[in-house]
């Protein structure tokens, strides 16, 4: 179960959210002109993506991926977002949305409802993808420990 009030879960939901939705919520939060400082300008950069191989569960570097991080302080609450790809506006909006929820802004219930809808959509999409591909799954046997 994904919890939009949990910051780690919220990061994932913001990254999966559409840029237009993030911009709409950011505009709603900024409508009253609260104090906002941008601590990290949104700039695309490459970061190393690390994954865990499935046999021995060892981490390895898959390769570099393009992301756009941004960080803000909104009315005393800090917000951060890192979105895949080159998405400066959406990253800044995501950081504002994160700060709004962290600071319990009056728009928080609407933001949380939208993030829960994103979580439901992501879960349904994964369920459909698994239903389509589960019949093609291959069960491998490894020779680990065999002589």
From TrEMBL:
Entry GO MF terms: lyase activity
Entry keyword set: Lyase
Keyword Amino-acid biosynthesis set for record: no
GO BP terms in the entry: organic phosphonate metabolic process; organic phosphonate transport
The protein's name in its UniProt record: Phosphonate C-P lyase system protein PhnG
Taxonomic source organism: Haloarcula taiwanensis
């Amino acid at each position: 179960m994904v919890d939009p009030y949990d910051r780690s879960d919220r990061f994932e939901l913001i990254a999966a959210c559409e840029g237009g939705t993030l911009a709409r919520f950011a505009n709603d939060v900024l409508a009253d002109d609260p104090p906002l400082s941008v601590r990290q300008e949104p700039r695309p950069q490459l970061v190393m993506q690390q994954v865990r191989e499935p046999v021995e569960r060892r981490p390895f570097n898959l390769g570099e991926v393009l992301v756009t991080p941004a960080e803000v302080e909104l009315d005393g609450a800090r917000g951060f977002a890192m979105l895949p790809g080159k998405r400066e506006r959406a990253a800044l909006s995501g950081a504002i949305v994160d700060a709004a929820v962290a600071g319990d802004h009056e728009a928080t219930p609407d933001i949380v409802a939208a993030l829960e809808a994103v979580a439901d959509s992501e879960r349904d999409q994964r369920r459909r993808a698994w239903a389509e591909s589960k019949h093609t799954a291959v069960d491998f046997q490894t020779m680990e420990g065999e002589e």
